[in-house]
Structure formats: C-alpha cells, structure tokens
Amino acid sequence: MASETAPVRLVDYRVPDFLIDTVELDFHLDPKATQVKSRLAVRPNTEGVADLTLVGDELKLVSVTLDGKPLEAGAYNATSDSLVIRNVPSAPFTLEVEVEIDPSTNTKLMGLYRTGAAYCTQCEAEGFRRITYFLDRPDVLAVYTTRIEALKAEAPVLLANGNPQQSGDIPGTDRHFAIWHDPFPKPSYLFALVAGDLGVITDRFTTMSGRDVELRIYCEHGKEERCAYAMNALKRSMRWDETAFGREYDLDIFVIVAVSDFNMGAMENKGLNVFNDKYVLADPDTATDTDFANVEGVIAHEYFHNWTGNRITCRDWFQLCLKEGLTVFRDQEFSSDMRSRPVKRIADVRTLQARQFPEDAGPLAHPVRPEIYYEINNFYTATVYEKGAEIVRMLKTILGEDGFRKGMDLYFDRHDGQAVTIEDFLSAFHDATGVDLAQFHLWYSQSGTPEVVARGSYDPKQKTYSLSLKQNCPPTPGQTTKKPMHIPLRFGLVGPNGDDLSFSDATGARVEDNVIHLTEAEQTVVFSGVSSLPVPSLIRGFSAPVRLSVDLSPSDLLFLLRTDSDPFNRWQAAQTFAIRDLVARTGAKVRGEALDTNEPFIDALGEVAEADALEPAFRAQILQLPGEADIAREIGRNVDPDAIARARAELRISMAGRIGGRLAVLFDSLQSKTAFSTDAASAGRRALANAALDLMVANRDRAAIERVVARYRNADNMTDRLGALSIMAHAPLDERLPALADFEERYRNDPLVLDKWFALEASVPAPETLDRVRALMEHPAFSPSNPNRIRALIGSFASGNQTQFNRADGAGYDFLIDFLRDLDRRNPQTTARLLISFRSWRALETGRRNRAEAALKRLDAVGNLSTDARDIVARMLA
Ligand code: PHE
Ligand code: ZN
To answer: What is the mean pLDDT of the chain?
Structure first.
C-alpha cells in the first residue's frame, strides 16, 4: 500500500509568505482543557499573497481576532489542522488566536502532554502545531514571551524558555503565574513549557566574559541527588565549548528538566532542555559506567545545540544534519577530551557500524541530507546523526585543526541568528580556507557506504611501495549510480619494528600529513624511498565512514594488532581477524563442517589483554568479539542467525579453553580495593574485568561461573552488578534465574533500573524468551505507553536478541507486528522506531525472509496506520 500523504521535497522549498516577529503566549493549564492564547506580530514576506495559512494538529479553535477585531465567519476557515485567514492586510498586523487542548489524552508525546503529574512539551519537529496554529517551520524566527498560569498546588514550578521576568499569585484564587521572555529569535520547534511539582538542584556558572548564569536541574521529588553528575557534566560542557569553540552561554539561566515519558533522548529547547530522565539520573548504585558516559554525552550534546542548532538553526527539515551531525561531532569531541580519545573513537565506530551501516545497506538508506520525506519524524536516523558527524570529522581531517576552527568561527559569525543550509555551512569553510569542497559535498547527497579496496605491492629494488585504491558506492533506493567521493584516508606504512616507515615522495594522489586524498574511482599511490616491505595501516582512526577491504594476511593483522602506533587500527585489526574467522566458521556450521581454532589469534588477544602499558578500557574493547549482528552484516545475504550464534559460541569456547586461565589471573588482579569512583580509569578497569569474565564463562568453567555469581552478589556498584548479571543472561547460565529474580526484587520500585532487567530478560538467547517477554508485559512495572519501558522490553527483544527475534517459525516477527499495530494508535513515533528492527529482513535466509515479509505485509494491510508507520513499512517493502 502506498503512502497516502504527499511527500515534501527539498526542491520545492520556498521562503515563507509571512514572518512572525513576536509571539506572546498565555497558557491556562488544566489537565483536560488547557486554554492557549497566542498573540502574533505577523508581517508579509512575499508580494501579493492574500491568505495567511497557519498549520495546526488536533486543535480546537475558540476565537480569533485581527488587529483587535473579531473575525467574521467568512473571513477565516478553521479545521483541526489549519487556520486560514482570508485577505489579510499587506502591512504588519496582529493576530490573536485562542485554542483549547487536552494534554491528558496526548499519548503521542508531541505538543503539550502529561508526564507523571507534570505538564511538559515537545515541539521538534512539528509539535508546536499541536499547541497553537502557527507557521510551524524552522525558518520563521520569533521572539517569544510566555505566560503560564496554573493551580499553585498542582504546579508550583512554572518554566518556559529564556529568562524569568515576573511571577506571583493571582489574588483571590488558588492559582499563580509566571512570565518568561526569550530575547533570542527562535523557530517554534525550540519552544518549551514545563509545569508541575518537581524537585530541583541548583548551581552557578561564570562564563568566559564574566556573565553569571544560574543552573537548575529539575526532577521527580526524591531523585535530586541523582542529578549531581549531570550538573557536573553541564558545567564541564559549558567550559569546554568556550575553550574548544569560543562559544559561551547567552541567557541568565539554563534549566534542564528530567521527565519519565519521552520519545527520544533529550531536547535542546532554548534555555530549557527537556530530558528523558534516563540521561540525567545517575549514581553508582543505579547507573553503570556506560550510563554515566551517556549522561555526560547527552548533557553536552543538548547544551552544544545552543550554538549549533539554536543560535544558528536549519532553514528546513532537510537540513537536519546541519545541527545534528555537527552537534554529535561536538559531543564526541567533548567526551574524547573528558575520557580516552581512542576508546571513545572505538565506541563511536562500533555504534556507526552497528546502526548506520545496516541502514545504508538496506531499504531505509537515505542521504545524510535527504531530498524527500513523507514523515520528518522518521529522519532522526543514524545516517543523519552519526554519518552526519563523520562528515564533519572528515572536514576537519581535510582542513586541519586550524582550517576547521577558522571555518567554524566564520560560520558562527556569519550566520548567527539565521536559519541556514548545508551549502551555507560548507561555504563558510571554503571561504575561510580557500579549499574547494565541491566534491566533498557529495557526502551529503549520495547515500550508501562507499567500499574501498586497497592492494599493495613492494619493489625492493626500487624501494617503492605502490598502493592501488579503488572506491565504489553500491546502489541505494533512488540512486543507482554514484560519483567518486573525496575520501580522506589517514594511513601509515608500518615497518618491521612497528614504527612507521618514512617515504621521500608520493605520487598518484595528494598525500599530506599522513592522509591520502582519494578522489577518483581508481588511483595508485606510489611511495618512493621506502626502505623495506611495509604493512599498510589504512583508515587510521576511522578517518572515513567506508568499508575497507585490504589484502592483509592473518600474520599482517596480528602484526598490526601487536604493534600499530594507531590504537584504533590495533582494535580494527583484531576485529577484522575475528570477523573473517566468524564468517568462515558460520559457513562451516551451515555446511556441517568443522573449522580449526586459530591459536595465534587467541594468544595475541590474551597478550593485549594483559599488556599493562595499554589502558584497561582499550584492552576491554580488544577482548570484545564482533556481535551476532556484526557478523550478519558482514555475511550480507542468506543470513542464518542460528548458525552465526553457534559459530560465535564456538570461538568463545575455544578462547575460554585456551586463555581462560590467564584471563582469570587478570580478572582477579583487577578487583578494586579502593572506594568506588566514576572516573574513566576506574571505569576502564571494571570494563576489562567484565570483558575477561564474559569470555571465561564461555566454556562453563566452574571456577569462572563461581566468580560471576560472586561478582553479582558482592557488587557495590551497578556496573559490576549488571555486568555480572548480563554475562549470566547472555551465556545463558542457569545461575541467571535466581540472580534475575533477585535483581527484580531489589529494584522493583526503580523504573529506570528495572528497565535494565527488562532488557536483559528480553535478550536471553533461549527459546523460552518470547513467552517470557509476553509474560513480562503483565509485570506491574511495565507500561505499554511509556517509551522507556517499551524500548527496554520490546526494543531489546527485537534489536538485541538475534536468534529469538529471528526465530525460524516467525513468532518473533508476528509478536512485534501485533504489538506495534496496537502501539501505533497511541504513539506513532515510537512505533516507527521499533519497526526499524526489520530493516535487514531481505538479507535473511529464505524461510525467515518469507516470514518477515508476511509479517510486514500484514501491518501494511492495516487501514489506519499513522504516517510514521506507513512510511517505514512502505519503504521497507518497496
Ligand atoms: N533534537 C534532539 C537532539 O538533540 C532530538 C529530538 C528530536 C528530540 C525530536 C525530540 C524530538 O538530538
Ligand atoms: Zn541533537
């Protein structure tokens, strides 16, 4: 069934017919019937347009006046999704509109809705139109003043964007009000309001120019102490943006609110960020080291949007990566500076490969800047965010540190207060550095992951090393042929002792500062003056988001794993070795053959794990084998998830057998005797201990199992406790059953912690898991309308449990589709996100492929799907 709504196309962009300079909002909050009055200063922006069309979404008009006069019935037309005013003046005018909305039935969590007993808003991308009729598009920038009135008892806290202006009681009533004013013109998607009975922590920050800023984090009463880490991360983010980018905060107050019902991670509303509480609340008893790192990263991300997104915003939604890709890049850099840069890079590349590569290789592939959409909510993707960030990173590689900073400075200077495009962004870098970025622009318009094939040959007589490079980007929906892109390949030619060999000259491509600029479909780079046969170390630091194939022998890979000066490529060498083994092993399983164990590889991993000169967090990354989904992606077609799981288990068993003893010594040496600390080094030791233990139990070694059980029981922090529990669940060990029950009992009253339990229960690779997931939907803590609960239980099953979601009988697919059919009526956005678990269905073996297709077709046949779900299903089946 085709999409029923008309698509939006980039080529159709037109400037708005009208602009709105100021917006005065007045909210009378009521759970069932909130009155919203808006007073808009409107001004024509193009010639000869007689009618003003404002958009709405599920609105009920109460009244409308123009320049103070009520409009006659024929002068306007109001429906729930538009308000057309006919023959408006050609000079500026004031429009006053009153609507009534019902926040308590708003289960889409877009617009004004309830979370717990509080009121909150979410407006990106198109939620403001669910609050009042408006020109709800990002290129209409207005100065907002917001008055909120509510029952004092129900909502003692009243918040909106900007600075607080006035507040007080309303005499003779049990109500009060507050007025907030945001002097910075902004698009409607950055509007926010929060009201309720909330706890708070406060702090202060002095900006580099001496401005004193009040900081507040609001949360549910009783959770204030769990906000301390987020506050600390906020202050570090504010300082970092000053040092790294010269950007300081610009209002008198910065407020964060943690809410428990939220479709996404968090939202950068000007001066009033609203967060999914999972990215704010963290203390050692309830949050893992990964949670702490995520809180730090998301706090930074939303704060950094103040400049990249808010002060400079997007002209239209096709430009989403302008703010998201850039801001992800900025938060990744921040976290790298706060923690270990190589470990952060490895983690980010893992995410990119796990989330973005499959998107680029499947039916949902789209350019980083799309050119057409049916539902913008569906473009908050790994491609826009993560690949978008990779593009900014490549830009920095191409321009160098100084050139990049000059370009950013010019961008901020030139476009402050504007709504701009990717072309404006790239022009700033071109104008600041003189570098031609015309070919580089293709990264924004061509979808698909380029493949780079490299072949090297050494001439010992001439002392030359030739590297032949080919690039090719496979076809993607709507794009059959691609042009060669500008791919910056950071590299080294590693000599026998592990140092990079020097060369006197390089021809065939521009080679500068250890970067080869691959710009053509085929190029051969010839290095002269190379003293001996090198092992090429290519795409160091993952300098481009491509798939590399290079003719390295197993011993070359082990050599790089042991000696490469680039830590990222040491990790990459281990991954490449493991994935080759696992793909071959899977093939052997399918054919019923056996494959030998590669002992030198396992020994090399053991050596790296023990190498005290390396950071523990890095060693932990080396020990983690590619996951089942990574192997499936590499195999690419006719995927049998059961064979993959058996192959991976087999390799793990060999590892446990061969180096389990050494890992046990390592594990014991990592047991901390000092008090718990969240710092990156301590977290690294915990990660390494967990990674070692995870391998040690693979062959069901009794002593290893005792260690994991004891680690669970004796843990004094959530990282160790959950680490042990997840090792038991994933193995899966029988010992998991009492431990999972214990965990539920301990944390049953803490929804965020219980989410970890829901997620683990759903990811147990055992045939009974689907029934268990069904049963847990009846658990008192599960709620079929809370996105965090849904993602924890259903999302983890669908995207984190390869064998059970992809059961051969198709029951996993049917379960998900039935659930989503129901969820779609309440929350389309979350439905569409969960549907993405099907994105690689065409790569499955025939039986599963047919069952997945049948399940998707069943959903497609449902008549009243949301545009969100309809769009994903249609593209998935196209
Ligand atoms: N703009 C948010 C971010 O920082 C994400 C988001 C999009 C949140 C849409 C809510 C709705 O990435
Ligand atoms: Zn963002």
So the answer is: 98
Which residues lie with the beta carbon below 6 Å from any ligand 1 atom?
A: 122, 124, 264, 266-268, 301-302, 305, 324, 380
Q: How many C-alpha atoms does 246 have within 13 Å on its Cβ side?
A: 9
Mutational pocket test of ligand 1: of 110, 264, 299, the residue with most ligand atoms within 8 Å of the beta carbon? 264
Joined tokens for residue 95: 């429009």
Q: Which atom of ligand 1 is nearest to the CA of 385?
A: 12
Q: Nearest CA to 456 among 439, 443, 438, 468?
A: 468
Ligand 2 centre and the CA of 266: distance in Å?
8
CA atoms of 682 and 372, how far apart (whole Å) = 47
> Which protein residue's CA is at the shortest distance from atom 11 of ligand 1?
124
- E-only strand ranges, 56-154: 60-66, 69-70, 76-79, 82-85, 93-101, 111-115, 118-122, 142-151
Strand-pair category, 253-259 with 272-276? parallel
Provide the 10 A C-beta neighbour count for residue 581: 25
Three-state DSSP at 725 gives helix
In this structure, the strands spanning 313-314 and 419-420 are parallel
Angle, CA of 701, 702 and 705, to the nearest 5° = 90
- List the structure tokens of 524: 């051969």
What atom of ligand 1 comes closest to residue 298's alpha carbon?
4
Asked if 666 and 704 touch (Cβ cutoff 8 Å), the reply is no
Chain segment 372-400, per-residue pLDDT in tens = 999 999 999 999 999 999 999 999 999 99
Q: Is the CB of residue 796 less than 8 Å from the CB of residue 805?
A: no
At residue 564, does pLDDT exceed 60?
yes
pLDDT digits (tens, 9 = 90+) for 60-86: 999 999 999 999 999 999 999 999 999
Question: Ligand 2 center to residue 268 CA distance, Å?
Answer: 7
- Distance from the CA of 300 to the center of ligand 2, in angstroms? 10
Q: Pairing state of beta strands 175-186 and 60-66?
A: unpaired
Q: What is the pLDDT of residues 411-451, one digit of tens each?
A: 999 999 999 999 999 999 999 999 999 999 999 999 999 99
Which of 110, 120, 122, 124 most suits a substitution to test ligand 1, by most atoms within 8 Å of the C-beta? 124
780/772 Cα distance (integer angstroms):
14
Query: Looking at the annotation, which residues are catalytic?
Result: 302
- Closest ligand 1 atom to residue 125 Cα is 9
Query: Residue 4: pLDDT above 80?
Result: no
Q: State the distance from the centre of ligand 2 to the C-alpha of 301, rounded, in angstroms.
A: 6
Residue nearest to atom 3 of ligand 1 (CA): 267
State the residue for tokens 């202050």: 235
Ligand 1 atom nearest 268 alpha carbon = 4
Residue of 380, 788, 829, 833 to mutate, ligand 1, most atoms within 8 A of C-beta: 380
Residue 827: C-alpha distances to residues 126, 191, 233, 263, 270 (Å): 15, 21, 31, 9, 25
Q: Which helix (H) or strand (E) holds 771?
A: helix 769-776
Assess whether the previous peptide bond of 282 is cis (omega < 30° from 0): no
Q: What tens digit of pLDDT does each residue of 656-666 get? A: 999 999 999 99
How many angstroms separate the CA atoms of 691 and 561, rounded? 18
Q: pTM of the prediction?
A: 0.99
Residue minimizing CA distance to atom 2 of ligand 1? 267
Share of the chain above pLDDT 70, in %: 100
The CA 79 to ligand 2 mean position distance, Å, reads 32
- Integer CA distances (angstroms), 373 to 56, 616, 763, 866, in order: 19, 44, 33, 15
pLDDT of 326 reads 99
**Among protein residues, the one whose CA lies closest to atom 1 of ligand 1:** 267
Burial call 769-807: b when 16+ CB within 10 Å, e when fewer: bbebbeebeebebbeeebbbbbbbbbbbbbbbbbbbbbb
Cα–Cα separations (whole angstroms), residue 661 to 165, 667, 695, 735, 859: 66, 10, 11, 21, 51
